[in-house]
From TrEMBL:
<dbReference type="InterPro" id="IPR007577">
    <property type="entry name" value="GlycoTrfase_DXD_sugar-bd_CS"/>
</dbReference>
<feature type="transmembrane region" description="Helical">
    <location>
        <begin position="21"/>
        <end position="41"/>
    </location>
</feature>
<keyword id="KW-0812">Transmembrane</keyword>
<dbReference type="InterPro" id="IPR029044">
    <property type="entry name" value="Nucleotide-diphossugar_trans"/>
</dbReference>
<keyword id="KW-0472">Membrane</keyword>
<dbReference type="Pfam" id="PF04488">
    <property type="entry name" value="Gly_transf_sug"/>
</dbReference>
<protein>
    <submittedName>
        <fullName>Uncharacterized protein</fullName>
    </submittedName>
</protein>
<dbReference type="GO" id="GO:1901135">
    <property type="term" value="P:carbohydrate derivative metabolic process"/>
</dbReference>
<keyword id="KW-1133">Transmembrane helix</keyword>
<comment type="similarity">
    <text>Belongs to the glycosyltransferase 32 family.</text>
</comment>
Amino acid sequence: MLAFPPNNTSVQSLFKRWPRLGFVFSVAVCSTLIFVLSWSFPAEDARHPNAYPLSQVPDHVCDAPGSTVSSHHSPAASANTIPNIVHYVWMVKDPAAEFHLGFKIFITFYSSHLFFRPDRIYIHTDASRGTFEEAKANGDVWTKRVLAIPGVTPNFVTTPMVTSKGVEISRLEHRSDFVRLAALLEFGGIYLDMDAIPLRDVTDLRHSGFANVVGGNFALTVKGSGYITNGVMLAKPHSTMMKIFSKAADEFFDGGWVTSSVVLLTDLANRISAIPSEVLILQPNAFTPTSYELEDEKTIFKPHFQTPPQVASGELPQELPTGERGLSAATCQGALAWLKERERKGSVEDWEIDFSSSYVLHASDDYVERIWGWDQKIDLRYILARQSNFARAVYPAIRHAVKEGIIPQDEM
């Protein structure tokens, strides 16, 4: 207990009043922080387009010397070229049970086929060979369509059940973590989670000169910020980072949800990036432009019924809408025209998120059943209606599948 001198009334008075002073001080600090943060961060979600009206930029800026043409050259092949091989992992509880792949999995496989044009699409699985072949021949419609995509190749793996230190690997997700590392270490290429959907080509990333390419995780909260996703990873075979990552995952696995995956990868990638050309760490928008949280899943998946459905009477539009058209022009004029077109009233909805900087949309749907106001079905009609951000993002690939007859028009 603190003892005060009998005549030191001012000190005693100060400490007696401390609870009130502390409260006032806390309020003042919080108010200051709120004021500072309100000026430091934009009120609107930065992922929505047209924050700056670039239509006000005059066309003649493109006439300046040196800016007429932005010539694009294919990157030179290097020792760190990442193979154009896609990897998915599908672990099952019962290797002899039915092998089933749904519509959303078709979206990511077909998008990989369309945008990456890979040499091969591996599906690493511990399902039995007989179960796989039965699904390929007699499975449900979406399973057969997935397995019929050109280049899809099974790689039958042994289920990792225990680490070298004797720690049991009981969850399917953790077994998948180990299998994906083994695949990238042996083959190199592009690993994708089953809910990670390619939106455009990654050739520039594969030829970037880096042995590994990873990306940050988007998060709505500070708690989830700063991590690197292991749901999308690119690597050359036997890269230094993957060698260390694979061994460290085995060494430090303790059964924790992300101990030897996201947390370990974040620590390793940030530290090993000091080695020239070893790892390129991209901003979160590149691979995971949305978070795993309920509010973000609402933003991505919930339909905006005030926007009329975009496909009527079973007919697809002849051209892709402006928001889903990529920028192919290599000129300054073409780029500026594309930017201005996206700002034209009606070309992009007010609720629409701009995925222009995203190579992959890693869209978790863990909380979809908790999103009220719709039937919670992510099916063909949902995509073709284009009333949600998810539908608009993946629509080009599904439209292509319909145009090519992979998906019959009578299913629309």
